[in-house]
Amino acid sequence: MPPTAGSAGEWIERGKACSRSGDHEQALACYVRAVEAAPVSAEAYLFLCNELKELGRYQEAIECYNKALKIDPASCQLWINKGNTLVKLRREDEAMECFDRARRTRKR
Predict the structure, then answer these.
(1) CB-based contacts of 76: which residues, under 8 Å, 6+ apart?
(2) Domain span at 90
(3) CATH at residue 81
(4) Once rounded to an integer, what is the mean pLDDT over residues 71-82?
(5) Average pLDDT over residues 73-77
(6) Structural domain count, the chain
(7) Domain assignment of residue 1, yes or no
(8) Beta carbons of 23 and 11 less than 8 angstroms apart
(9) Is residue 54 part of a domain?
(10) How many angstroms from the chain centroid is the CA of residue 91?
(11) What's the pLDDT tens digit per position in 28-67?
């Protein structure tokens, strides 16, 4: 069990280490703590969303990406990752909208 204190950045780094070692449930717990430590950090949400996707929890990942995109709607990476997750759910039309949004965001 990870320590209970730390900055969002520290939780993200712990989460990355857990994810690299294959402990995705523990990584998820770390990323939840990162979001709790910095609830307006799109970066913290990005890691949380990606881990949900890694665990096959696609609908939860989509909801997470939506929260992150409210914080940073200009994030090309968030749009791409949301699109990739929608593909996993066979929601190709919505995925294409995300990819188009990512392309438009990148041109800014």
Answers:
(1) 102, 105, 106
(2) 8-106
(3) 1.25.40.10
(4) 96
(5) 95
(6) 1
(7) no
(8) no
(9) yes
(10) 18
(11) 999 999 999 999 999 999 999 999 999 999 999 999 999 9
Token pair recorded at residue 91: 């929601």
Maximum C-alpha span of the chain: 43
Residue type, 107: K
In this prediction, residue 5 carries a pLDDT of 67
Q: If you compute the radius of gyration of the chain from its CA atoms, what whole number of angstroms results?
A: 14
pTM (two decimals):
0.90
**Given a cut of 50, is residue 1 above it in pLDDT?**
no
Give the other-Cβ count within 10 Å of 102's Cβ.
Answer: 19
User: What's residue 77's pLDDT?
Assistant: 96
* Burial of 99: CB neighbours in 10 Å, binned 0-12, 13-18, 19+: middle
Domain membership flag for residue 13: yes
Residue 49 lies in a domain: yes
**CA 75 – CA 63 distance, rounded (Å):** 16
